[in-house]
Design goal:
- By secondary structure, the chain is an alpha+beta fold.
- It has five domains: 161 residues, Orthogonal Prism (Agglutinin, subunit A); 134 residues, Agglutinin, subunit A, CATH 2.90.10; 142 residues, no CATH class; 97 residues, Phosphorylase Kinase, domain 1 (2-Layer Sandwich), CATH 3.30.200; 189 residues, Orthogonal Bundle (Transferase(Phosphotransferase), domain 1).
- The protein has 15 helices and 45 strands.
- The strands form twelve sheets. The protein has a six-stranded mixed sheet with strand order 38-42-43-41-40-39, sandwiched between helices. The protein has a five-stranded antiparallel sheet with strand order 1-4-9-10-11, with no helix packed on it.
- The radius of gyration is 32 Å and the shape is globular.
Length: 807
């Protein structure tokens, strides 16, 4: 930011400073702490050098331009003494200023923001009388930017026009409101509003984005007729008070004060009003320097309901709480994001909708995917009771308008597009039955022409020159196709290591562009980092996951490509598909298809427990994928790191094994836990520690641990378990099996309890898999047969036994 020479500071006289302190309601009036003031005619320019701005007297806050990546500049106020430039107020949140824009404190006493061409973007408006004019401006250490008259009367202040944040000593008067930003990084007006209404009620509303119209409230202080202001007290709490200063309700309580902490309260983009604290820098401070949330979390996924709009998430999406108790939006199986870079915009079906053309009935082309504890309550158009779940499925299947049916306690609801107000939470109960098109099932009625019509049309064409032109057109297409195929074939032959493999070779520049400079990180491991990207294709933009390898074998290009081709040569519905790679200079990257529903970690260990039926399918899918790698690949592949993080979920929540085959690409001394040991602690087979030859049985061991985690919906090691015997899942599971108390493993899972016979069988299979003696472990083929019921499961020995053998 350029700072014009004509700008300068002057100091308020002590008595005027005291008066200003009194007007702002600050706790003390110190003559030794004068304010820095901005004189008329001062200005700032938006440039990439953002070290020039107007600061408060003690440097607590700054007023100026902040650059938001390459999108433009935000005229803002931010905390200036901490590394994170946390914005507390902004002027042009809906229209960012381009480079070269200026903010000027004009001779007329207003702040005016103009673009480089002189067009006005934003202006302040003073409320003083005609006989009073603005004399100076000041950035105060309270975070308030003021325009004041000669007698220190405030004619305009940022505290009166807040955006999404309030600070200590700030009030929200009747009619005042906060509007959340659109997303964490997008400062535009978003989808939620906190309003201190003229009737005295403090209310949280969803907005009919992008219009400034509110829908049905999802929280209220219930202070109608008595509320007067929302006050952020200097004691650190936020209260609704009456006009005689009586506290009616405490919205956020806090024992930390502004003397030792920076405090801010913000209506965040997810619709929750939170308070944050940050320890002020001191010479002897040992506290972690980061914003910490002090307000209680609420489940907004279930609070927002009714009215119009899509709810917390976009249409055809659903909201659920993550492990950090924050809401996030997810597309249901069979749906994909409308905009890969904006999850709030909602989802669209990744299939052709059910046709209502009665000439071509489609009931056989659709199936249902069940989501437990999920509902879209604002999409109902049909309700039935008492009925069975099977009846509910058939009713939706035979109705071309039905996109989803929900079933709970004998009640069936049909829902149509767009699905609104989606939520997944244990309090919802029941299950949602999503109707999706079966794989390889399409509907193209326009291509179905009656045979007699074909005969008539063909006869006409044969007798006309149109038919000859048509043949010439087809011949031209055929020749072009052959030439393109020959050219492509020649290109492939230049690299024999990728013959017969449908892989795309990417340049580093292509992947750098696809990831926007490798900024959106999906995950990080010991040997790689995964980024989200969008690659161009002939049809459209495709979402991909790009794995950047840090420690790969330093062999020649041909060897690397040969190993990559071996991975790409796999083809199974339970494996993540490799789309291409980059092998340019020191850059080694693999490009995979993107899995919209993340990994098994979040799905299995989140707040909402997956249904027993879903977990069974996850077990079978993972076992089939491993069996394929061990038994059916042309080159036997040992995964070496089977764990929930490496089991990804596609649009239909099908288990897809990731990172298979990477062991051959890593340096020989690359480790994760111990030297020469690959894998992750808790899932590593005992033979790794004994220096024994490694076989596919290491994957069998890891699968056994994973199987127990899926059965119990808990991690293999729980330090905070109810008692010490339950800390190590494998030991506790064997004890429960030995003592015939299998039901303890699924104590809070009613579905699994009903199917206790299968639970016991799965536990027995897991115990066989985690035998310390390698020879006692079954192959994955035999494991799959036992899971599917093709062979009986014999009584397993203790995991550390060396005397028994599996039949």
């Amino acid at each position: 930011m350029a700072f014009q020479n004509k700008s300068s500071y002057f100091l308020l006289p002590p008595f005027l400073h005291c008066l200003l302190v009194f007007l702002l309601g600050l706790p003390t009036c110190s003559f030794s702490e004068p304010y820095k003031n901005v004189t008329l005619g001062s200005s700032l320019t938006a440039t990439e050098q953002n070290h020039l701005y107007w600061t408060s007297q003690f440097g607590e806050f700054a007023f100026g331009f902040l650059q938001l990546e390459s999108k433009g500049f935000l005229l803002a106020i931010w905390f200036n003494k901490i590394e994170e430039k946390t914005v507390v107020w902004s002027a042009n949140r809906d229209k960012l200023a381009p480079k070269g824009s200026t903010i000027q404190f004009t001779g007329g006493g207003q702040l005016v923001l103009n673009d480089p061409r002189g067009n006005q973007i934003w202006t302040s408006s003073s409320s003083g009388s005609t006989n009073q004019s603005v004399s100076y401006a000041a950035m105060l250490d309270s975070g308030n930017f003021v325009l004041a008259a000669t007698n220190s009367k405030i004619l305009w202040q940022s505290f009166d026009v807040p955006t999404d944040t309030i600070l200590p000593s700030q009030t929200l008067n009747m009619g005042g409101f906060l509007v959340a930003r659109y997303s964490e990084t997008n400062y535009k007006n978003g989808r939620f509003q906190l309003r201190m209404q003229s009737d005295g009620n403090l209310v949280l509303y969803p907005r009919a984005f992008p219009l400034d119209i509110v829908s049905k409230a999802y929280w209220a202080s219930n202070t109608i007729g008595s509320g007067f202001q929302l006050v952020f007290n200097l004691s650190g709490s936020i209260d609704v008070i009456s006009n005689n200063n009586t506290i009616l309700i405490t919205v956020v309580s806090n024992t930390l004060t502004p003397q030792n902490f920076y405090l801010r309260a913000i209506l965040e983009h997810d619709g929750i009003f939170r308070m944050y604290v940050y320890p002020k820098p001191t010479h002897n401070s040992s506290m972690a320097k980061a914003w910490s949330q002090v307000s209680d979390s609420i489940n907004i996924c279930t609070m927002v309901h009714g009215g119009w709009g899509s709810g917390v998430c976009g249409f055809n999406s659903y909201c659920r709480l993550g492990n950090d108790q924050r809401p996030f939006c997810t597309c249901p199986p069979g749906y994909v994001l409308l905009d890969p870079n904006d999850e709030i915009k909602g989802c669209k079906p990744n299939f052709i909708a059910h046709s209502c053309d009665q000439s071509f009935p489609e009931t056989d082309n659709f199936e249902f995917v069940a989501l437990e504890n999920t509902n879209w309550p604002q999409a109902d158009y049909g309700f039935f009771k008492p009925v069975s779940e099977e009846w509910c499925r058939n009713e939706c299947l035979n109705d071309c308008f039905c996109a989803v049916a929900t079933f709970k306690n004998g009640e069936c609801s049909k829902k149509r597009f767009p699905l609104a107000d989606g939520r997944m939470d244990p309090s919802v109960g029941g299950r949602a039955l999503l109707k999706i098109r079966k794989q390889n099932s399409t509907f193209q009625p326009n291509n179905l022409i009656h045979k007699s019509t074909i005969v008539v049309v063909g006869s006409v064409l044969l007798g006309s020159s149109v038919f000859l032109n048509f043949l010439l057109f087809l011949f031209t297409l055929f020749v072009s196709y052959r030439l393109r195929k020959i050219r492509k074939s020649k290109l492939v032959q230049e690299d024999p290591s990728i013959l017969c493999v449908n892989l795309r070779i990417f340049s580093y520049e292509e992947l750098n562009k696809a990831t926007n400079g490798f900024i959106h990180q999906l995950g990080h491991g010991s040997f790689s980092t995964v980024y989200k990207g969008i690659i161009d294709s002939e049809d459209n933009n495709n979402l991909v996951a790009i794995k950047k390898l840090d420690n790969v074998v330093q062999e020649g290009d041909r060897e690397f490509k040969a190993e990559v081709s071996a991975i790409a040569g796999t083809n199974h519905k339970n494996l993540v598909r490799l789309l291409g790679f980059c092998n340019e200079g020191e850059h080694r990257m693999l490009v995979y298809e993107f899995m919209h529903n993340g990994s098994l970690v979040d799905f299995l260990f989140g707040n909402s427990k997956p249904s027993w039926y879903t977990r069974i399918q996850l077990v079978l899918g993972t076992a089939r994928g491993l069996c394929y790698l061990h038994e059916e690949c042309s080159t036997q592949t040992i995964h070496c790191d089977i764990k929930p993080h490496n089991i990804l979920l596609d649009d239909s929540f099908t288990a897809r094994i990731a990172d298979f085959g990477l062991a051959k690409l890593l340096k020989k001394d690359q480790t994760r836990t111990l030297t020469v040991i690959r894998g992750t602690k808790g899932y590593v087979a005992p033979e790794w520690f004994r220096g024994l030859p490694i076989t596919v049985k290491v994957d069998v061991y890891s699968f056994g641990i994973l199987l127990l985690e899926i059965i119990c919906c808990r991690r293999s090691f729980e330090e905070k378990a109810e008692n010490e015997e339950q800390m190590v899942l494998a030991d506790w599971a064997y004890d429960c099996f030995k003592e015939k108390k299998i039901e303890m493993l699924v104590e809070n899972d009613e579905e699994a309890k009903i199917d206790l016979k299968r639970v016991k069988k799965f536990v027995m299979i897991a115990i066989w898999c985690i035998q310390e003696e390698v020879s006692l472990r079954p192959t994955m083929k035999k494991v799959l047969q036992m899971l599917e019921g093709a062979i009986e499961v014999s009584f397993p020995p203790g995991p550390s036994s060396f005397t028994s053998t599996i039949s």
